[in-house]
Design a protein that fits this description.
The chain folds into 2 domains: 2-183, Neurotransmitter-gated ion-channel ligand-binding domain (Acetylcholine Binding Protein, Chain: A, Distorted Sandwich), CATH 2.70.170.10; 186-261, Methane Monooxygenase Hydroxylase, Chain G, domain 1, CATH 1.20.58. The protein contains 4 helices and 10 strands. The chain has 263 residues and is α+β, with helices and mostly antiparallel strands. Helix content is 23%, strand content 40%. The termini are far apart. Helix 2 packs antiparallel against helix 3 (214-237), helix 2 packs parallel to helix 4 (247-260) and helix 3 (214-237) packs antiparallel against helix 4. Residues 2-184 form the Neurotransmitter-gated ion-channel ligand-binding domain. Belongs to the ligand-gated ion channel (TC 1.A.9) family. Its main location: membrane.
């Protein structure tokens, strides 16, 4: 059976860097043809389409679809067990259109090597069983007019469809949309780079303190050092625990070593 899917993003974020996952509020549009639901025009008035609510939708067959990379794993997208609002339309020839509004919490592997000058690739994966032929609709993704990508700029969107093979149950059909996001640097310029630069410059004032006043020189530099470390710790702690040294780590270590040299 052919099943067509498209998405409409309503709101993106926040991206939880500590848990390496993000949230998105979206509409899921699903379309398929079921001849059993075709209207018999000979025994009824000529109805072009029939709007149905969640009660009637629970009585008809729906393709088993689920978000493969949801955290935690959720029920089928079109199942009443998945929180959200659902409605649909059945046309006279038996074509079914369903829209489901829900929130997805999905995993996104973060590459923090160049953080906060990084580019991340996050995706949404939709799976079904081997008897369903999943495919994207002609316009697979819609964005609302006031949609924002949280603290990112959208660089590229890629749509894929294929199969994923599980050894015990065989191949499963999968649709995937991947969006490449570049982080906005404005926040980090104001809250990280500018303050740490000022801390380094302020530590230079120790050169204008008389040489005999060593305690004053040490107190000034140590206070600057502690303030610098405290101000950058909150942002650094928001990153996932990893062995990779990020660009932010190099910047912090450079500023710390420069301040330390003025002791």
């Amino acid at each position: 059976m052919d099943v067509e899917v498209s998405l409409r993003f309503l709101n993106f974020g926040p991206l939880d860097q500590k848990k390496s996952q993000y949230s998105v509020l979206l509409h899921v549009y699903v379309t398929w043809f079921d001849p059993r639901l075709a209207i018999d025009y000979e025994n009824s008035s000529r109805i072009s389409q029939l709007e149905i609510g969640e009660e009637l939708l629970s009585r008809i067959w729906k393709p088993p679809l689920h978000f493969a990379n949801a955290h935690p794993f959720t029920a089928d997208i079109l199942s009443p067990r998945l929180p959200g609002q659902m409605s649909g339309i059945i046309t006279g020839d038996g074509r079914v259109f369903i829209i489901k509004k829900t929130q997805l919490d999905a995993g996104c592997h973060l590459n923090v090597k160049y953080y906060p000058l990084d580019t991340q690739r996050c995706s949404i994966q939709i799976e079904s069983n081997r008897n369903i032929h999943l495919q994207w609709r002609r316009e697979p993704l819609h964005l609302t007019s006031n949609f924002r990508w949280d603290v990112f700029h959208l660089k590229h969107i890629q749509f894929d469809n294929g199969r994923i093979i599980y050894h015990e149950s065989g191949p499963f059909v999968m649709l995937q949309v991947t969006f490449e996001l570049q982080r906005k640097i404005n926040h980090y310029l104001i809250n990280v780079y500018l303050p740490s630069t000022l801390f380094v410059i302020s530590s230079w004032s120790s050169f204008w303190i008389d040489i005999p006043a060593a305690p004053a020189r040490v107190a000034l530099v140590l206070t600057t050092m502690l303030t610098h470390v405290t101000s950058t710790k909150a942002i650094h702690d928001s990153l996932p625990e990893t062995t990779v040294i990020s660009a932010l780590d190099i910047w912090i270590m450079t500023c710390t070593s420069l301040i330390d040299r003025f002791l």
